[in-house]
Write a structure and sequence with these properties.
Blueprint (H helix, E strand, L loop, with lengths): L7 H5 L19 E8 L6 H9 L1 H10 L2 E8 L3 H10 L4 E5 H8 L5 E9 L2 E5 L7 H7 L3 E3 L5 H12 L11 E3 L2 H10 L4 E5 L2 H6 L5 E2 L3 H4 L7 E6 H6 L1 H20 L1 H12 L3 H8 L3 E2 L6 H10 L22
Helix pairs in contact: 2-12, 2-13, 3-12, 5-15, 12-13, 13-14
């Protein structure tokens, strides 16, 4: 499916109609199927935002089957919330950080990865002038705001500690769960000493002269490594191949559009992220958008070896469906 995405001016009219809430299960046996999707905050989710605004899943499904699908989008605070929704059957598609996705795929949540979405730069910022290294951070007992225990940010913090020759769990008790915007506000106001975050918040914090970066995180998570992925319930994959494929096709189209039309894409997503178009474009150009995964299996091995998940997957396809390319 190759289709020209509608112009920015027309597309902007869709932005006010973003839906929230949970509905029924995906079902292609009736004239109108339904699909519930969950996603989170930030520019890393740009392909999902564009698929939402442009109705790409609906069009792909219509082209393939001649039938309609009603897609409901739910913005959630964490991958753990999405895992709960998929396990309970109220969500069929989720976009989340790779760490909670690995956790879900190796447990009884009932999904696998169906696509990569993006890689984004991460950083650990602090307002404490006495903390300049991971070792000093451990000794300081400073609190660290990040999305959640078990999130991607938690795991790369653990990998950075391990890379520095420290206990990967040395800062587990220092973590304070906060959404990215709240963590940014807290570290900038001084109410919390440290914040580990991603695009676009890391770029904004680096511009703040009151903050400085603690090295280590970027060394264990590069821009090309998978950060955000899409997961699909095994029920959807097994029982509605056409709808599953429509979601895959829509995400591929959205990512291709971003990579070929970043200025237009930034105009479509800037309002969601609270940026002007020029700022959004600057941040988007620093991201990596691809359907191909990178580094997932190695991350899963680290998580298993350090007690973040119970079992080591035997190979990449324990984590991902067969259509996914990567490692």
């Amino acid at each position: 499916m190759k289709r020209k995405i509608v112009s920015v001016i027309v597309a902007m009219s869709f932005m006010a109609g973003c839906l929230t809430g949970c509905g029924g299960n995906a079902n292609s046996t009736s004239e109108t199927a339904t699909l519930n999707i969950a996603y989170q905050y930030g520019l890393a989710y740009a392909p999902a935002m564009i698929a939402q605004q442009q109705g790409l899943i609906e069009e792909a499904y219509k082209e393939a089957t001649g039938k309609d699908v009603t897609v409901t989008w739910n913005q959630m605070s964490s991958g753990a919330d999405i895992n709960t929704g998929i396990a309970g059957g109220s969500i069929q598609i989720g976009f989340m950080g790779i760490a909670p996705a690995i956790t879900g795929a190796t447990s009884d949540v009932g999904y696998k990865i169906f696509t990569n979405v993006s890689g984004q730069e991460h950083g650990l910022m602090t307002n404490d002038s006495n903390i300049k290294t991971m070792e000093e951070l451990v000794k300081s007992n400073a609190q660290i705001a990040l999305v959640n225990i078990g999130s991607f940010q938690h795991i790369i913090l653990a990998r950075a500690l391990d890379n520095a020759g420290l206990d990967p769990h040395a800062l587990d008790s220092n973590i304070v769960a906060m959404k990215h915007p709240d963590g940014k506000a807290s570290v900038e106001s001084g109410s919390i000493p440290c914040h580990l975050t991603s695009s676009p918040y890391i770029y904004q914090e680096r511009e703040n002269e009151m903050l400085h970066e603690i090295p280590g995180v970027n060394e264990v998570s590069t821009l090309e490594d998978s950060f955000i992925v899409g997961v699909a319930s095994e029920t959807l994959y097994e029982q509605d191949k056409e709808l599953y494929q429509a979601v895959c096709d829509a995400m591929e189209e959205s990512i291709e559009y971003i990579n070929g039309n970043k200025a237009e894409a930034a105009a479509l997503t800037c309002e969601f992220n609270g940026n002007d178009v020029d700022t959004e474009l600057k941040y988007m150009e620093q991201g990596h958008y691809s359907t191909e995964t990178k580094g997932i299996y190695d991350l899963a091995v680290f998580m298993a070896g350090n007690g973040f998940i119970e079992t080591t997957p035997k190979d990449f396809y324990d984590l991902a469906f067969e259509n996914v390319k990567g490692n």
